[in-house]
Structure formats: C-alpha cells, structure tokens
Amino acid sequence: MTIHSAAGRPVAGAHYCPASRLSYLDAGAGMPAVVLLHGWGDAKEIWAPTVATLARSRRAVAPDEAGHGGSPLDGARRMSHLAERVALLAETLGLGAFDLVGHSMGGNVALELALTRPELVRRLVLVSPAAMGEELPAYTRLYLHPAAGWAALRASLAIYGRLATLAQHIPPEAELPYAGLLRRSASSSAHDPENLRVMLHGLFDNPLGKRLGAVLAPTLVISGELDLVVPPPLSKRVARAIPGARYVGIPRATHHPMDDRPREFERILTEFLG
Fold first, then answer.
1. Which of 14, 98, 145, 213 is the most buried (most CB within 10 A)?
2. What is the enclosing helix (H) or strand (E) of 247?
C-alpha cells in the first residue's frame, strides 16, 4: 500500500514488520532517521504530510501503535509494551540512534522509550504529551467510566464513521476549520473499541511526572495553544521538568498541531531536528 499526497504523488509506502507486529509508513533515506508516534485513537496516516516533508532529507518511519490501525494488540496493555515494540521495529529496520517524535499517548510512549533505551533516542520531540495522566482534564477519562464509557466510545466511533465520508474531500495540506478532525475521522472510526479501552487504561496507569528529570535526550515540547485534551500548562510543566527542554506553543492549533497547522508545525520540527 502507498500513501499519496493531495496532488497524487506517492509520499510513503505502508509495510508490516512481523518481528514487532507493527504496521508502518516508511519514506526517504539518510540518517539519522525520524520515528513518529501517533496518539490514542489516531493512526500512522496522521503523520503522512510530515513524513513527506522529512523524507526530502532523511528516512522517516511512522508506525501504527499496538491496538491501532494495522498493528494488532497482541497482549500489549502498558505503555512500556508499546515502547518495546517500537524499539524492536527500529532495530529490525536498522535505524541506529534516531530522532523520536511522540504525540499525546505517543508522547508517553516516546518518553518511556527515551527513559528505558536512551541509547536509541538522539533527539526527542513531544507534541501535547500525555505524560501526566493523573492531571489531565476529567473528561479525558469519560471512555473509562464504568457505566457510560462503552456507550460514549461507541457513539464517538459512529460519529467518526459519518464524518469519514466528508474527509475524502479534504486535502492533507488544507488548513481549514475542522479539516483536521475530518481527516482523522476515517482512521479513528475503524478502530476496535475494546483495544482503545485497553490502551487508554494503560495510558492513565503510566504517569511520568516523577521520571521526567531522568530524560537525557535534547527535548522540544510543542503544544497547540487551544489544546483542551492536554492543556498548554501541562505541556509547559513537562518541558520544565526535563533538563534543558524547550517549549513552543502554536497559535490557533488544538490537540493536533501537526494537522491543524502543518506548515508551522513542520517548520518548528525541522528547525529543531536540524
């Protein structure tokens, strides 16, 4: 399978790694490679425009995390399990030390990988990282509610399914109101709700606030200034807790700045990665 840009040009091929049991996009050549991890309920395709930009000068790999897209859950229940499978994917592909980008839940996984396998992570970019699950807004736990959680999750997936038909007319590069939500709806609606619940439990069971001071990689934290899922004050706290980390806020962007403001996001990202 090949992912195409709005202009119809191929930007990345989709592959499957039997060793790590992860589906992934892979484009470009040159080292250091960049690995990009999506958030809860998203999929690797959210990174397609970013992968296309990075692939002009280096190799870019964006996997579906366990329980998402084309990557089976296969017993994964913790963020550490996801980090181990990403590390195995990188080793199988021969990436060596790579730059790591993690969004939301993917930020939690990226931090777990940077803390447990620091030799693999050259630079670290955290995008609205869900690193302090215990301090996220209460409504982010709605899908885990013992009575209403299942119904709310299934209703949300049904709504995404209806929005997915509109998403076909939204080009990846468009910066239109709600364009990002429409683009994301196609992949979100296809997820297994049971897998999503397992991974959401795993996210909230892995608060990282007390471990952030041990991160060794040079780190950049990016947040949309209108983010209601991981509010900017939380992302700023993550940046302050990591030695030497920088923080950048993107105006008029919500929880998915790479999708809401792709040009601004890619400029900030590529400047940091060099």
1. 98
2. strand 246-250
